[in-house]
Design brief:
The complex is a heterodimer of chains A (about 425) and B (about 290).
Chain A: E1 6-20, H1 29-34, E2 41-55, E3 59-64, H2 70-77, E4 85-91, E5 94-97, H3 110-120, H4 125-138, H5 154-166, E6 172-176, H6 184-199, E7 203-208, H7 211-217, E8 220-225, E9 228-233, H8 235-254, H9 260-269, E10 273-280, E11 290-291, E12 297-305, E13 309-310, E14 312-320, E15 325-331, E16 340-341, E17 346-353, E18 360-371, E19 377-379, E20 384-390
Parallel strand pairs in A: 3-7, 3-8, 5-6, 6-7, 11-20
Antiparallel strand pairs in A: 1-2, 1-4, 8-9, 10-12, 12-17, 13-16, 14-15, 14-18, 18-19, 18-20
Chain B: E1 17-19, H1 30-49, H2 57-77, H3 87-109, H4 111-114, H5 116-119, H6 128-154, H7 166-190, H8 194-207, H9 222-229, H10 232-244, H11 251-282, H12 286-289
Helix pairs in contact in B: 1-6, 2-3, 2-6, 3-6, 3-7, 3-8, 3-10, 6-7, 7-10, 7-11, 9-11, 10-11
The chains are: A alpha/beta (about 425), B mainly alpha (about 290).
């Protein structure tokens, strides 16, 4: 790691919950009367041996399947849950966004909720009161200030919560699945807020299911699996491992050892082809992740063949920051000269895509593929992903298309077409 | 550390790494504690009254109507209390004091689950939740006393220096009620039966307090038992002595120094200490127990 100062330091954190195994309703009444305060408990380990560091100004992703302990970890960081063991140190003030919100009170108007939350996140009551209008305004809700919160739609509540969060001058933001809610306009707003916060040197910890989101935004990521750190490091490595974990789980659900998901998981764990390098831009010496509007997207990869592969190919996908898939291309069989790739060979892949993307942040991910004898396509490498930005000011919509709009005067004496 | 050519500029004003406090009863910052207590109490107050048409007036209407009904039944129908000086005032004073106790404790029971969304998502001193309820109720208590004061004047009672004794009496009542509110709020999380149990106990305590019947109307040895076992009883008796009727029997006269003063005071002191201890012990886990 570099010598940037740390923002979060987690050491040997463990957490277990006591789960009541016999619900009071299930116990015989006689037993309950004899031992009213006794209940069978089971220790359920949620987190074990969790140690990691986040540097200041980092965008840090936490991914994992449901029940892997992501949210518990975030709650420990936010001082909502107490860790059973270990130590957490943070630098500065933290603003949490947990369980899709910040703890609003349904019966009260937006303004009061905003003030109360801002105070809980560290502003003084005066500061909170003077910023409340700004926060409501930023959420686009200034017309509904005095409405009780229960009359808000869930999207409005999330917008409001997010707005409070970003304006309490916190050094560290903890975001649990923030992109999973809200409409696409809100998600785009989140995206631009992320970029702004990152430029201000804030540390952001984002819990998500979405691998494209991790790849598009995060500097580092952590994969939790069954309460332990399964992978830590570059987002692409972590998300490949996540893909493998997911595929193994899917294989188990399929029940077969040789189903598609099982083979997929095997391939990612021990691929016949490695991706030695991947970069954006025409020149490997000048890798470039910022594109002008309309500038073609050029993606290159160098592959190293470890085991022989019949009919290798390459497939890629472009996704936006919210994980929306925009385009898929490539082929499982690129008709390599000679048909198959031998161990020790190196292959070069070059992808050039016209760029009609609206300004914003995107991920291009790709991986080697192979066409098997039964005609199905299978991955031959883990996925690699690179994020890039299309520069310009964001307007409505996902694409920039060539278009023409003209206007001209017409003779006012001519009869209007279509009118008698 | 500085092998990579110069320290980064953004580190200059960086706050130091500090261990996170974790969830706790009191938090670490005293100023913030009071700020938060205030803001949560105001929100509790508004939530209780803002959505009703009569709003805060309800705090005054409720005890007055209650008083009216009881007064009509006991005095008008049962002909009770004609020989007790200023009986209506005794009733009003007792009702207001008891109602305060009841509000703090019964609202305290479910106070933590009622603030679940806050507790599960935010870090703040947990004790603020039941304390804010006690604070709101205390405000109501003073408004109630203020609202019924004309009644006292109408009966020819004007403030004297003796009335200042109400300050320690009410302070003790507030302390005792708040302590029970704290205990109930955390025990409810573990034992949901507390809710039912407490509504029963509160009713029993009402009849075990000299509210409907002045203490001298209660036959021996029940008056002694009542004064000794229910810490609310001596407080209500004392309030009557200092404000309404200096000749009324106080707890000392009823039960003697040991049972009338020492035992109730030690019970209150014990409740206060125990409440802080148990709340402090349980506070770090309330979020996950919900």
């Amino acid at each position: 790691m570099s010598d940037r100062p740390l923002s979060i330091e987690v050491r040997d954190v463990a957490k277990s919950f006591r789960i009541q195994t016999d619900h009071p309703a299930d116990r015989p009444r006689k037993d309950k009367l004899l031992h009213p305060f006794r209940a069978e408990h089971r220790e359920f380990k949620v987190l074990e041996d969790i140690s990691f560091e986040v540097e200041r100004g980092e965008f840090f992703g936490v991914i994992g399947r449901n029940g892997s302990g992501k949210s518990t970890l975030l709650k420990i960081l936010a001082s909502v849950y107490a860790a059973d063991a270990g130590r957490v140190r943070i630098a500065g003030r933290m603003a949490p966004f947990l369980e899709l919100g910040v703890g609003f009170n349904q019966q009260q108007p937006a303004r009061e909720n905003v003030i109360m939350n801002a105070v809980m996140m560290g502003l003084t009551p005066d500061e909170a009161a003077s910023r409340a209008d700004e926060m409501i305004d930023f959420a686009g809700l200034s017309d509904h200030t005095d409405l009780q919160l229960k009359n808000y739609s869930s999207g409005m509540k999330v917008r409001l919560a997010f707005s409070v969060l970003t304006q309490v001058d916190a050094d560290i933001l903890l975001l649990d699945e923030v992109l999973a809610v809200g409409d696409s306009a809100f998600q785009q707003k989140c995206e631009s807020v992320f970029t702004k916060l990152r430029d201000e040197g804030k540390t952001i910890v984002l819990v998500t299911h979405s691998m494209p989101t991790v790849n598009a935004f995060c500097d580092h990521a952590l994969l939790l699996h069954d309460g332990r750190i399964d992978a830590f490091g570059k987002p692409i490595d972590v998300s490949n491992r996540y893909l493998e974990v997911n595929m193994r789980a899917a294989a188990e659900a399929e029940g077969g050892r040789d189903g598609y998901a099982a083979r997929f998981a095997e391939t990612i764990a021990d691929p016949p082809i490695h991706i030695a390098d991947a970069w954006l831009g025409a020149d490997p010496e000048q890798r470039n992740s910022a594109l002008g509007s309309g500038e073609p997207i050029i993606f290159n990869a160098e592959l190293e063949v470890v085991r022989a592969v019949e009919r290798p190919g390459f497939q890629f996908k472009i996704e936006d920051g919210q994980g929306q898939s925009l385009f898929m291309g490539g082929a499982a069989d690129l008709e390599l000269e000679g048909g198959h790739a031998e161990p020790g060979e190196r292959l070069r892949v070059r992808v050039e895509v016209e760029n009609r993307l609206a300004p914003g942040r995107y991920v291009i991910s790709g991986g080697g593929a192979q066409l098997t004898s039964d005609g199905t396509s299978e991955p031959a490498t883990p996925v690699t992903a690179l994020n890039f930005e299309v520069e310009g000011t964001r307007a409505e919509g996902l694409m920039e298309l060539d278009h023409a709009v003209t206007m001209e005067r017409i003779d006012s004496d001519k009869p209007v077409i279509g009118r008698p | 550390m500085s092998s990579a050519g110069g320290a980064p500029a953004i580190g200059a004003d960086l706050p130091e790494l500090r261990e996170i406090p974790g969830p706790s009863a009191f938090g670490t910052d005293r100023t913030r504690f009071w700020e938060l207590l205030w803001i949560v109490s105001v929100s509790d107050f508004k939530q209780t009254y803002a959505n009703t048409t009569l709003g805060f007036l309800w705090t005054i209407i409720k005890p007055l109507v209650f008083f009216g009904v009881i007064f009509v039944v006991l005095r008008g129908i049962l002909r009770f209390g004609a020989d007790v000086p200023n009986y209506p005032l005794i009733l009003v004073m007792g009702l207001i004091m008891f109602q305060y106790f009841q509000e703090v404790t019964t609202r305290g029971v479910r106070s933590i689950p009622n603030r679940e969304s806050m507790i599960r998502k935010m870090h703040f001193p947990r004790i603020i939740v039941p304390l804010s309820i006690a604070l709101t109720a205390t405000l109501t208590l003073f408004f109630n006393l203020l609202a019924v004061s004309p009644l006292f004047f109408a009966f020819g009672l004007w403030p004297t220096l003796e009335w200042l004794w109400m300050i320690p009496i009410l302070a003790t009542l507030i302390l005792f009620s708040t302590a029970l509110g704290l205990i109930l709020s955390v025990t409810f999380i573990r034992f949901p039966d507390v809710d039912q149990v407490w509504s029963l106990v509160a009713r029993v305590l009402f009849y075990a307090s000299p509210v409907l019947f002045p203490i001298e109307k209660i036959p021996e040895p029940f008056d002694v038992v009542m004064t000794a076992v229910n810490p609310l009883a001596p407080l209500i008796e004392l309030a009557r002595v200092v404000v309404i009727d200096p000749n009324a029997p106080g707890p000392l006269a009823v039960a003697g120094p040991l049972l009338g003063v020492l035992l109730p005071l030690s019970m209150i002191a014990f409740a206060a200490v125990f409440s802080l201890w148990i709340f402090k012990r349980e506070a770090p886990r309330v979020a996950e127990a919900l």
